[in-house]
Amino acid sequence: MGLLLGLLAATRAGSNRATAPLVRERSSAVALTGGPNTSMVYLARAGDRLIAIDLGWWGSDRAVRSALRDLDASPGDVTDVFLTHSHRDHVGAWRLLSASRFHTADAERPLLVGARDHRGWIPRLAERLKPSGLPGARDIEVTGFTKDTAFVFGTDTLRAFIVPGHTTGSTVYLFRGVLFLGDAATYTPWGGFAPAKRGFSDDPREAATNLAALWKRLPSGSTRYVCTAHARCRAFSPAFLRDIGE
Length: 246
Hints:
By secondary structure, the chain is α/β, with parallel strands linked by helices. The longest helix is centred in the first third of the chain and has 11 residues, at 2-12. The chain contains six helices and 14 strands. It starts with a helix and ends with a helix.
């Protein structure tokens, strides 16, 4: 019953998303996909590349195709996919974009291709009840990184910061002033922003510690907004840091 109530509450929390800072005409777009909690796919033209950050869940193919049309693009045009982590609600469109190069922390790679299980009890239970259909090692090309890494696309730079805890290789990405937090931070209407949720996370204490250490790793003045993978965005400010418990 507790799990059911939690899922219903997450569904209600899926309204009133704040993704306006992410959208630039003909340059970037957002796809919102379904499930117990809305999962976001971010798409952007960067130099001669077209990149995606996370791949959503239910209905992801249709939502991603629609967002790509806003960029006058098709799935085959997406060159690079950056995953915050490999839980099922962040990899839904992997088949649609399987020709892209996938980027993830090295520690996350075996989880992405199903060679190792997540440790959070809710993802493990969900996998037993209904396998998530993750890609196999030969289904996609995966490039890993083991430390904070900068990817340069023309005049754009995407920065990856590894913050283990929610999953072994959880990663956040900084791009065009927006910090894409994945599930390293969460949002609820009754509690606001907070570190990764227990039950879903491998190690909630490690997740909170690494999130708190993240802020000093960001280049000074680089971050204007923060967004969770479930499309909750807010200005990055001392008030945000105070509210999240920094």
